[in-house]
Design brief:
The protein is an alpha+beta fold and about 80 residues long. The protein has a domain at about 1-50: Erythroid Transcription Factor GATA-1, Chain A, CATH 3.30.50. The chain has helices at about 35-45, 55-65; strands at about 10-15, 20-25. A two-stranded antiparallel ribbon has the order 1-2. Strand 1 and strand 2 (about 20-25) form a beta hairpin. The longest helix is centred in the middle third of the chain and has 12 residues, at about 35-45. The protein is elongated and about 80 Å long. Bound molecules: zinc ion. Zinc ion binds next to loops.
Length: about 80
């Protein structure tokens, strides 16, 4: 039980998802989250595009611009 570990002296952090205090103990495999639910919720935020950078088209254009297929490397 996590509560058994939450005694004075235990490092407490804030769950990034629900802001609840979380005991930083090695037994907590979900740290820095307080629970698997919060970890999944946070990962879900990334996946749904709230934090993820979805548009990579500009980057692709830059790459294709650098590789110029019309340019012939051998110019005699
Ligand atoms: Zn939480």
């Amino acid at each position: 039980m996590l509560t058994d570990r939450m005694r004075p002296g235990t490092s407490l952090i804030e769950c990034p998802s629900c802001k609840k205090p979380v005991a930083w103990v090695t037994d907590n495999e979900y740290r820095p989250f307080c629970s698997e639910r919060c970890r999944i919720l946070d990962l879900g935020e990334w996946a749904s595009g709230n934090r993820y950078i979805p548009d990579d088209k500009e980057h692709s254009d830059v790459l294709s611009g650098e590789i110029n297929p019309e340019r012939e490397p051998q110019t005699d």
